[in-house]
Structures are given as structure tokens and as C-alpha cells.
């Protein structure tokens, strides 16, 4: 039986980078980008340790739009204010990517993506 107490170490290094890959996609489904108030987040249905599904969501911190490219930054995410067509892409069990079309300094839209790292399933709840 899989251990559903999946957690990911979250260590903030210079530049706001996360230390561990995301693991929640192994025990969660219906994964999607979500606006949580004015914040950018991820919503999913995740299994608890007992195997019950639980609707959960979490704010994704520290992503900004730098001239049409998604980058890591400190503090709250701000990319959602200048990007559209925002989506979550799962690459097997190894990668979770935030994709978007983001405005650059000339007002043009650029296709960009960034890996969401350090996100896990803690007994049915998304957690960094």
C-alpha cells in the first residue's frame, strides 16, 4: 500500500527556490490552476491516508512574470496579474509545471512555463 502521507521538504534558498520535487500528483487527481481570491493556486482532489478523496487547494507562492517569462521571486505570486491561459501540466510522476501566456515589456504574449516544486499531499491536503 502506498504511503499517502506524502510530504515534501520546503527549503527556501536564495532566489526563493524550492528544494524538492512535487509529489502530490501521485495521489491527487482533478489537478488544476485556481484563483484563490486574488492569489494564484492549485486545486485538486487528494487521497487521505484512509483512501478517502478530499477537495483541497493551496496558494502557490513566489512566481512572477519577468518580461514574459515565469520566474521565482520572493513573497506572493504576482504573475496572474499579467498572464493568461494559465494551466497546470503534469509530466508523468516527475514534473508539475505551471504554463501561461505572459505579457512582455512590449505588450506581446509569450508562452512560458515553470516547474512547481515542493508540493505534496499531507493526508489529503496540499502542502508545501
UniProtKB/TrEMBL annotation:
Residues 1-19 form the signal peptide. This is Uncharacterized protein. It comes from Ascidiaceihabitans donghaensis. Keywords: Signal. The lineage of its organism: Bacteria, Pseudomonadati, Pseudomonadota, Alphaproteobacteria, Rhodobacterales.
